[in-house]
Specification:
Order of helices and strands: HHHH
Shape: elongated
Oligomer: single chain
Number of domains: 1
Helix content: over 70%
Mean pLDDT: 85
Structural class: mainly alpha
Largest sheet: none
Low-confidence stretches: none
Radius of gyration: 18 Å
Strand content: under 5%
Number of helices: 4
Number of strands: 0
C-alpha cells in the first residue's frame, strides 16, 4: 500500500505539468489531423513524449522509493537505480523539447512568411 501512496503523492505534484502536456497533445493532434505535415507530426511526438514521461516517471519514482526503503538498500545502490530511471527520462524529455521547439519554430516561420505576401 505504501507503494501506491508514494506514487500518488509523486503523481499529484505533477498534475499541472500533466495537464499542460495533455492540452498541448490535444492541440497537436488537431493540427496534425488538419494538415498532416511533417512539422505537425514532430510537434505531436514532442508533446506525446512529454506527456508519457510526466506520467510514467513519478509513478516509477514514487513506487520504487518505499520499496527501496523497506529493503534497507545502501545509498549507492539506491542512487544507481534512481539514475537508471532519471537519465533516460531526461534524455527523452530533452528530445521532446527539441521536437516542440522545432515545430513552433517552423510553424511560426511559415506563418510569418505567409503574412508578408
Amino acid at each position: 500500500m505504501e507503494y501506491f501512496i508514494g506514487s500518488l503523492v509523486s503523481f499529484a505534484a505533477r498534475i499541472p505539468w500533466i495537464a499542460a502536456w495533455l492540452a498541448g497533445t490535444v492541440i497537436a493532434v488537431k493540427l496534425f489531423r488538419r494538415e498532416r505535415g511533417r512539422v505537425q507530426r514532430v510537434g505531436l511526438w514532442g508533446f506525446a513524449l512529454m506527456l508519457a514521461v510526466s506520467v510514467i516517471q513519478p509513478l516509477l519514482m514514487g513506487g520504487l522509493t518505499p520499496w527501496f526503503a523497506e529493503r534497507e538498500m545502501r545509498p549507492e545502490s539506491f542512487s544507481i537505480i534512481l539514475s537508471a530511471i532519471n537519465i533516460p527520462s531526461s534524455i527523452i524529455q530533452l528530445g521532446a523539447i527539441v521536437c516542440i521547439v522545432y515545430a513552433f519554430w517552423v510553424l511560426g516561420k511559415a506563418r510569418l512568411s505567409s503574412n508578408e505576401d
